[in-house]
Amino acid sequence: MMSEPPGKRTRTRHRLVTNALDLFEAQGFDDTTVAQITARARVSEMTFFRYFASKEMVVLDDPHDPVIAESVVAQPATLPPLVRVARGLRAAFAQVDEPEDLTTRRRVRVVAGSPALRAGMVRSNAATEAAIADALIADGVAPLPARVAAASVLAALTCALLEWATTQDGTTLADAVTTALDTVEVTSA
Question: Which residue intervals are the DNA-binding region (predicted)?
Answer without folding.
Answer: 33-52
